[in-house]
Amino acid sequence: MTYNLQSLITILQQILNLEQTRWILSDHNKPQLESLLEKSVSLKQILENSAAPKMVSLESRIRDAAHKAEDLIESHMVDQMLRHKGTRFTFVTADLQQVMQELDSAMEKVVELMEEKKTASGSSSSGAAVLADPILKTIVVGVDEDLLQLKDRVTSMQSEQLEIVPIVGMGGIGKTTLARKLYNDPLIVSHFEFCAWTTISQDYNVRAILLGLLRRPNEKLSNELIQCKDNELKEILHKRLYCRRYMIVLDDIWSIKCWDDIKWCFPDNNNGSRIVLTTRESDVARNVGTVGSQHEVQLLEESESWNLLHRTVFGEEDCPYALEEIGRKIARDCGGLPLAINVIGGVLSKAERSRDVWEHVAKDVRATIAETDDHEFSNVLSLSYNHLPNNLKPCFLYMGAFPEDYEIKVSRLKQLWVAEGFLKSNEDKSLEEEAEDSLSALVERNLLLVRRKKSNGKALSYGMHDLLRDVCIRKADEEKFLLHVKKRSKVRLDKPRRVSVDTSCGMEDVDAHASAESLSVARSFIWAAPISLCRQKPSHLFSKLRLVRALDVYEMEFPKFPREIYQLVNLRYLAVSCESGGLPKGISRLLYLQTLIARLEECHYVPSEIWEMSELTHLKLARSVICIEEGYRIKFVRNKLQTIFCVKITGRLIRRGFFESIPNVKKLGVYFPKLPSSTEVFDLTYLHKLQTLRCSSELNEDTGCRFLLQKLRFPSSLRKLTLFDCVIFGRFMTTLCELPNLEVLKIVECYFDEDEEWEAVEGDEFRSLQFLQLEELDLVHWRADETNFPRLRELRIGHCLELEEIPSGIGEITTLQLIEVYECSPSVVASAKQIQELQQSEFDNYHLKVRIYD
Questions:
Q1: 3-state class of 2 per DSSP?
Q2: Phi, psi of 544 (to 5 degrees)
Q3: Could you give the angle at the alpha carbon of 826 between the alpha carbons of 825 and 827, nearest 5°?
Q4: Cα separation, 388 vs 396, whole angstroms
Q5: How many angstroms separate the CA atoms of 38 and 718, rounded?
Q6: Distance between alpha carbon 463 and the CA centroid of its chain, in Å?
Q7: CA nearest to 497, candidates 422, 594, 563, 602
Q8: Which intervals hold domain Disease resistance R13L4/SHOC-2-like LRR (predicted)?
Q9: Distance between CA atoms of 268 and 189, rounded to whole angstroms?
């Protein structure tokens, strides 16, 4: 809920910022805006610190009031910017008094509900129902290996100290089922003198936890125990466990605070006692669990999914041949989530065993699950959303904007969230760093899956389990957060704040779901449909999206840059593709634009006006290079610019201070068409924040670029370097060794100047390098050993047809995990296999993987 207020707060803070020069505030409006900001901040703080169940009834009132204020303010700002030229405008908007009265009324009601909650909690009983002992009823499949690992971990006497063993995974993945199997295993029962189980849940009650652990199996709690105070119960439990080898299961723990409230009860008897806990929160597992004890439950494989569905529906009977193929598809569509398979299995076990019935279910497995009378599945997954902190809820809901099985790049997500304005600014961190933290927090809660990783091991893209995505879309619909346009969908939202178009849709579907009026307040428009389906371009929609902040239409190609976009002056994020033409001068009218991603088919000069867009942070051109007009003089230092790909570098551009004008750039792509002067040095050392550099050149006899790398000076901050179409001269690699933070090095389509050889001499140490890629090189001899790459994790070699072998010493790098070889000579393939065989036979090293591709 509070994310609606945060977006309003962000706008107000930007307008009222004393350092901003864009908006001139009238004596009438400034006090109003300050008052509105104060009320919004106060209401947000109150809501963040309250959890009254009746607060839900107020959410729509608060949301609508915040949206109304935001729309009034931004509508006026857009009108002013479209009406007047220049970069300074007078802010004189409509009266905000009515909106402030609505917020005042909402605040009074919130305070009233909080008082009611205090009174109710003071008079309520401190007792709570205690859950019965776990009874193993659920059919389980695919946990044998997990169970063996856990049994070994909890019964091992290598460490006799008390150990906490967390079982962690997403909702519905089978954590509790696995813990129950462990708890009831005969080996566990005989190994421990005392075993107890309690289920905790989100809104835990310490007293209920203590009574649950103290209740003896098959017995009621004594009146004496029930009348004890909480501290007395803690002492009784501590004494009962003292000097005994015990195993306690704490099922469904959500917070570190819960553990802190009860941990005193569990003495360390130095006799091999264990505490097993199940949680969705990786942060809880990491902070509470003993180091190295965390057990992550994985999704089921396809064969395991079918086995579970088969046993749920047919028991020990055989599945009729006519149903097996359909059944396997149904199991596969459950995405490896045991709870989903059990639910769909329950539906099929009660249904007629006919091909028609099963085919009907197979058409939409997720819809069948959602329509079942048993709400357990939906409730289990919804718990994860309900438990999210307020600042993470919009980040989670935003994932519903992307299609099923879609990989969303980390950079794209961060830039979209920043553009939206629902991230709270922090003096110590940038908004993109806040976005990075939010992504990590969603992964920690097992709500996002890492789909692909970068060469440095960090996440490149994320995805979401299909069934969790269904919950995401349903919640987004309930909160009027997002309209997801989909074929045959009946959902229509009145004035949605965000609109996304599914991969199955065309323009007619958008027109059917969203009127001009409903689009007028949308802040995000994301088109995910592939180019082939976009016969009719949505240019006519652009004029309706007058308040849009994020416009992502990268997946379709326009004949040329749509002129209608010039009018979208509230844009912060723009991703677009064009079949011809370059960036027009009109782009400079988008004064608030932070991220510009464009796919252009031809190399064109970027209009000089673009360098005067003060908010521009990320500029990325695909299939093209940025050509800056030769006559343009750099007038401004662009402090906010962090990403720029890819710039055509000339001697004149350097002399006119281009690099000095982008002091805070972190990612940079440069292209050298020629070497302008034999005395020119390209010094990048004063780009102190540069982390990623891609350097390419026009390599032929006339350009002189054979000597390019001799003239480059790199900053010590560099972490990732890609060299494309360059000449590697004798001592260049030694120069790279001096970069203390270099983690990733990619050398692609380059030429070795001296004898087609790379000899890493003694003392050449890439001290931080973790990833090395050699591709399409004329390299013949490569000499190196483990001392040259002490931290290398991954080595990729491709299309190096002249290379004789991989140095045998590479295999002795203790951190090396993967060697990947594709389309290389037989001798390179043989050397890779030999390295692996040697590591296994002589050093018992089975962690090193070797992958060969033809």
A1: helix
A2: -85, -20
A3: 90
A4: 9
A5: 43
A6: 8
A7: 422
A8: 540-798
A9: 20
The C-alpha torsion from 394 through 499 and 517 to 477, rounded to 10°, is -60
CB 766 within 8 A of CB 786: no
Supply the DSSP symbol for 429. Answer: B
- Report the 10 Å Cβ neighbour count for 655: 11
Distances (CA, A) of 714 to 282, 692, 708, 744: 39, 11, 13, 14
pLDDT tens digit sequence for 198-257: 988 777 888 888 888 888 776 777 888 888 888 999 999 999 999 999 999 999 999 999
Do residues 416 and 398 lie in contact, with contact meaning Cβ atoms separated by under 8 Å? yes
Residue 535 Cα distances to 11, 529, 556, 578, 775, angstroms:
37, 11, 9, 14, 38
Per-residue pLDDT at 246: 94
Identify the bridge partners of residue 851 per DSSP, sorted by sequence position: 820
Residue 590: the pLDDT is 93
3-state secondary structure of 344: helix
Which ranges of the chain have pLDDT less than 70? 1, 50-57, 94, 114-142, 218, 372-376, 487-493, 506, 511-516, 529-538, 602-604, 630-635, 675-680, 699-707, 730, 754-755
How crowded is residue 359: how many other Cβ atoms within 10 Å of its Cβ? 13
816 alpha-carbon distance from chain centroid: 27
154, 182 in Cβ contact below 8 A? yes
Tell me 761's DSSP state.
-
Residues paired with 713 in a beta bridge: 683
Question: Which residue type is seen at 116?
Answer: E
Single-letter residue type at 443: V
Which are the contacts of 348, defined by CB distance < 8 A and separation ≥ 6? Answer: 309, 312, 313, 327, 330, 358, 361
Distance CA 355, CA 319 (A): 12
Query: What is the distance between the alpha carbons of residues 687 and 587, in angstroms, rounded to a whole number?
Result: 27
Q: Is 248 buried (19+), middle (13-18) or exposed (0-12) by CB count in 10 A?
A: buried
Diameter of the chain measured on Cα atoms: 96
The pLDDT score that the predictor gives to residue 702 is 52
Task: Give SS3 for 443.
Answer: helix
Helix 321-333 and helix 302-314, axial crossing angle in degrees, nearest 10: 120
Confirm whether pTM is higher than 0.85. Answer: no
* Cα separation, 624 vs 577, whole angstroms: 12
Can you tell me the distance from the alpha carbon of 630 to that of 161, in angstroms, rounded to the nearest whole number? 72
| Beta carbons within 8 Å of 307's beta carbon, 6+ residues apart | 141, 142
Token representation of residue 688: 């102190």
Q: List the beta bridge partners of residue 558.
A: 578
Among 556, 551, 518, residue whose Cα is nearest residue 537: 556
Rg (alpha carbons) of the chain, rounded to whole number: 31
The CB density around residue 596, as the number of other CB atoms within 10 Å, is 22
